[in-house]
Amino acid sequence: MPPRASYTHSGDLGELHSFIPCARILASLDTAMSAEARAYLADAERELHRLANIARHTLTFARTRPTGGLTEVGSIIESVMAMFQARCNSRGGRVHYASTLNMKVDVPPDELRQILTNLLSNACDALVGGEGLVDVTLASDGETVVVMIRDSGVGIPTENLERIFDPFFTTKDDVGTGIGLWVTKELVEKNGGSITVVAGNQATPFSTCFRVEFPVARNSV
Predict the structure, then answer these.
(1) What distance in Å separates the CA atoms of residue 49 and residue 45, rounded to the nearest whole number?
(2) Residue 194 region, left (φ>0) first, then alpha (ψ -120 to 50), else beta?
(3) Which of 22, 26, 116, 133 is such that its CA lies 20 to 30 A from the CA of 188?
(4) Is residue 142 part of a domain?
């Protein structure tokens, strides 16, 4: 994307965010505002948040990224997991990762981080009740690096599997934008990788497994 276009869309995104506090201020100042009007404002605020998230995810994918350079997969996994540990704990679950592999891929670190962030976010959101588990594994056969993210959450209905990577498809009515997994797949494939999902018929306790594969980087240690 040309720099001017990126700047313009970023500015538009900031303007979109600015409407959210305005709605709150309007509601707080107008004591005579009806309950129905306040409900409309609340709906508008939720929609603005949703649109802002869609714009942010789309810009993440569209923005030109540097290519080249090696990224150590394990360190990125650990940094992303650190962000989600408390979130999973608050839902009665935990995140587990144990690997001593030091594999590198030819993927910009911010793009790999975005991929893992989207997948871990979905996995944590899927947890219900106590004793939930999100398990991350890193493996390699010497030619391919494989990251698997499994969760013991609510699972994905079979009829949704074919649409799971479609833009704007979501089962999260309140908070979902339907853009995260689409961006994830585009980023994976853009960097020469592949992503697949399996739901159901897995060994207990996991209900869903996302598998991401990238070629091992040349000169990877």
Answers:
(1) 6
(2) beta
(3) 133
(4) yes
